[in-house]
Design goal:
The complex is a heterodimer of chains A (204) and B (291). Chain A is an all-alpha fold. Chain A has eight helices and no strands. The radius of gyration of chain B is 26 Å and the shape is flat. The chains are: A mainly alpha (204), B mainly alpha (291).
Chain lengths: 204, 291
């Protein structure tokens, strides 16, 4: 029942995010930009699928959150998980990947609001932290639904099994952030400024 | 072969089975649901895709058979007494704990199989079309992203080829060097795609995005057969909930394994098995008719 409760919670989180997006007043430009970011993140995941747990999608989702905000980060994270699984294969993990990447984007969005001038090092730190958090969120349902008793030793044992993959994910995020973070931040900030630009009144 | 059932019917069938699978712990209950799911996977000719998905799932299920006996200490039929480990304490593996791990592994395989079945019974487009009625913006975002995904994959390949022509080697050298060589692919792809997104935005506006209430088109209509299958699914769910609430779907693993089938439970099991088989037959018939 614990596993079922978690699943309902995850669905509620995604439902509320979707509802917020539906009620938002995002322009066609913003939506097109989100589409592109989600699709590029998915392509990145598919391209790097051969290297287990090394996923540029986390880096791009964090960048989206940092530059555009929490809702945009959450949407791109959730959409990327679903889209890339259309190619790699859907499973019960899709829901949890949507939640984990969505929360990664959302948290980066809050960090971006708190410190608007966040740069490559903030991205690197977030990438390292989310490398592990992502794995723990993925393990949470597995532990809650299929492992008994729910104690700290059992939780640690489940996470010990994925420690190597989580570390590879975190190291991959750090490498992507250091290699690409600076350039991509500049690029996305430029597009964000273009997005916010309004048409000047006509000169008579 | 594509099976065309209404998306809501598919949600009723797979959702009700997944809900039952999540709540049950009885080996027979889980085993019967898995058998019925496999029959439907075979009927929809999805066993090849299922086998591929099971390669990873079997590992995760095997993990449950190992983890559960290591962390639990409730069983009485001792199979192996191991050393004392930090954090975990004294390791003692009992028959009951292994049985619990096996049933949990079976449950995980059942859920994976249900997702395979869902994937087979319903395409992405139908799901988005139904979702568009409730969440049009989300549906539009996903549709557009699904449309551009193949183009971006092709673009990524072309960028790779162009860089290789200029001397980049993606498959040689240590891991970090390869990643460094591959990084420009990602940068160029993102830049060119972002520039292209303005064209998508203009196309959206040209089609009246945000101008007012939108029209919708539903590619799959609700048919009388859908009523039959969805009705059977809901009936099966009601029966399953009755079995779950009356605790006939629960199984006592600890301290010793209970008998699999008690005499006074027989009528419950027969009614429930009839419900599951009836539903499976309905879906099979529809799958065969509409394929």
């Amino acid at each position: 029942m614990f596993g079922l409760g978690l699943m309902v919670g995850a669905l509620l989180l995604l439902g509320v995010s979707m509802w917020t997006f539906e009620r938002s007043r995002l322009s066609s430009k913003e939506i097109a930009l989100l589409v592109v970011l989600a699709a590029v993140a998915s392509v990145g995941r598919v391209v790097f699928a051969a290297i287990p747990s090394v996923q540029p999608v986390t880096c791009l989702v964090l960048l989206t959150g940092l530059v555009f905000g929490p809702l945009e980060g959450l949407l791109v994270g959730a959409a990327s998980a679903w889209l890339s699984n259309c190619v790699l294969g859907q499973g019960p993990w899709t829901l949890w990947q949507m939640v984990a990447w969505g929360l990664a984007g959302g948290s980066a969005g809050w960090v971006g609001r708190w410190r608007p001038a966040s740069g490559r090092w903030t991205l690197t730190s977030l990438g390292w932290v989310w490398g592990y958090l992502f794995g723990w969120i993925m393990n949470l349902w597995y532990w809650a639904a299929f492992v008994q008793p729910h104690t700290w030793p059992s939780w640690l044992l489940v996470n010990a099994g994925s420690f190597g993959f989580d570390t590879a994910h975190a190291v991959g995020n750090v490498v992507f952030a250091l290699l690409l973070g600076g350039d991509l931040l500049t690029m996305l900030r430029r597009f964000h400024r273009k997005l916010l630009a309004t048409t000047a009144p006509a000169l008579l | 072969m594509t099976v065309r059932l209404h998306p809501l019917t598919v949600c009723c069938v797979v959702g009700s089975w997944a809900l039952c699978a999540m709540c049950a712990t009885h080996p027979l209950y889980v085993g019967l649901l898995l058998a019925a799911t496999l029959v439907l996977l075979a009927a929809t000719r999805a066993l090849a895709a299922w086998r591929t998905a099971m390669a990873w799932s079997a590992l995760a299920a095997a993990g449950l058979v190992i983890i559960n006996p290591l962390v639990a200490s409730y069983g009485t039929t001792l199979l192996w007494s191991g050393p004392r480990l930090p954090v975990l304490g004294h390791i003692a593996v009992s028959l009951e704990e292994v049985a619990f791990g096996l049933v949990m592994g079976l449950k995980l395989l059942l859920l994976m199989s249900l997702v395979c079945l869902y994937d087979r019974l319903q395409g992405v487009d139908e799901l988005i079309a139904v979702g568009a009625r409730v969440a049009p913006k989300t549906a539009m975002l996903l549709t557009l992203a699904t449309l551009v995904l193949p183009r971006f994959k092709r673009d990524a390949q072309e960028i790779r080829h162009a860089l290789m022509a200029r001397g980049a080697r993606f498959s040689r050298g240590p891991w970090l060097q390869r990643l460094r060589q591959a990084a420009p692919v990602f940068r160029i792809l993102l830049l060119s795609s972002l520039e292209g997104s303005w064209a998508t935005a203009e196309a959206l506006q040209a089609r009246g995005f945000g101008a007012g209430p939108r029209t919708s088109f539903e590619p799959t209509r609700w048919a009388s057969q859908d009523t039959l299958v969805a009705g059977a699914a809901l009936l099966g769910l009601a029966l399953s909930v009755t079995v779950l609430v009356s605790r006939h779907a629960s199984y006592q693993f600890y301290p010793t394994l209970a008998p699999l089938l008690a005499a006074d439970d027989l009528q419950w099991w027969l009614a429930w098995a009839a419900g599951v088989l009836g539903l499976a037959a309905c879906v099979w018939r529809e799958a065969a008719c509409r394929s």
